[in-house]
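Minutes, methods subgroup
Present: GH (chair), OT, SY

1. OT presented the first of two proteins processed in the latest run. Sequence and structure tokens recorded below as shown on screen.
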Amino acid sequence: MSKPSVVFVTGNANKLKEVQKLLSNVTKYEIINKNLDLEEIQEASLEEIARKKILQAVALLPKGQRIVVEDTALGFDALNGLPGAYVKWFLKKMSLDELVKMLEPFEKKTGEAITTVAYSDENGDIKIFQGITKGKIVKHRGNLDFGWDAIFEPLAEEGNTEALTYGEMTKEFKNGLSHRSKAFKLFEQYLVDN
């Protein structure tokens, strides 16, 4: 008999690989992927964005499926959390260098990387999990293939004693301290317990 599945809704191949690795200890479910065209919700509340995203996915997929979505944000402390959930749109209009330059007038160059995971079980009950990693916004260093990874340097107290940006880290090291790994560890524990 095959295992029940959890459908991870994403069109981002890098994100899919990362999440499959993060959930590799969940053995009672098979993590499968569905690329759905979900509306990009514009909202300040990360939890509300994730909740609306999961409701869209539930409406588009067959009833009774376990579904998970995630949304990631990068907030600058000097800008009261902006660009936040809008970082994807900022990066469509500007380079990483221009994004970092936004902080030039400010002394504070810190921020938070946040992933919010929304899960709907087979009954449609929704749970929200969030992971946050604090860091510094720096000139880009390392691999430029994954969004804003190259400009985010997690703080030493987050476990980044070598002062690397996400873009300079191995996938294994990044998965040990990233905002996404923190959110998916909470989700993983929930799946194991339920």
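2. SY then presented the second protein from the same run.
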Amino acid sequence: MRFKKLGSILSVVLISGLMVIPTGIASKVYASVSEAINKLIMVEDSVVNEFAAGVKIMVDEEFEEPKDWDGEKTKKIVTIPNQGTTPAFIRVAIVPRWEDENSNPWPGDVSSDVVKITYTKNTKWVNGNDGYYYYNEIVPGGEKTDSIIEDVELDTDKIDKEKYKGKSLIVDVKAEAVEASSEAYNAVWQGLNDNTKALLDKLLGITK
């Protein structure tokens, strides 16, 4: 979603990305959604993973498009449906970043003091403290997660408005899914911390 207001300091883009492991070695599916022009761009790598046959997810967004965006709180509801047939573990990374007028990376402030993302309270999402939020439930095929975020806001009082003029805020929503099995998550999500492994094992009924 990209919005510009004449004379405003910036535009905002909220992009959704997927990393799906459907069936054989490893696969990535990235979806970029520009809701302002209702255009969906998808690039798919067909390499697959044997641990995740039938896993297919997407990022589903509910977004209230402002006529002019100048940093005010903007509603953005994000859920992850499992469109496949295989029960899945799902994790999500929310990554803000900046681009300049030519869509090149730009070193803008993405701290939580400036880019304020409201995470949904009282849901099943658990912060893994590794850059990801993990869904504390196995998601069957045909069902979806609770929303992970509610809105995005920019504190324009904490940035140099002239410096940021014309720049774009990108909020990447990157979702990943693997088959709900210990073999799959250990093979694909390597390097998980003990708390996250305990969470996933508990969902599988594994006790140690």
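Chair's summary of item 2: The CA atoms of residues 98 and 169 lie 5 Å apart.
Next meeting: continue with the remaining queue.
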